[in-house]
Design goal:
By secondary structure, the protein is α+β, with helices and mostly antiparallel strands. The chain is 33% helix and 16% strand. A three-stranded antiparallel β-sheet has the order 1-2-3, covered by helices on one side. It is elongated and about 35 Å long. The chain starts with 7 loop residues before the first strand and ends in a 16-residue tail after the last helix. The protein has one domain.
Amino acid sequence: MSSIPSYLLFSLHSVYYFRAVVLDVVCSLFHRREIRRSPQARCRREALIRGRELLLQVQRLFTEAFQGIKPSVGRLCGEWES
């Protein structure tokens, strides 16, 4: 059995949460220290799939921030929210 990645947390309410720390270099652009989103999954497998999707989106936001483009955390969403 593989372990849960560090960007996924299991809450007391039996729901997984995605968490990414915002780097100090771009913290002023994000106006926050961390990004937290719920992948809306109680199943470990589904949380892993949705968590990877959120991780890719956050990495894309970090890349844009390093390029000078103001990031929009509100754009973080998954196909499950559509």
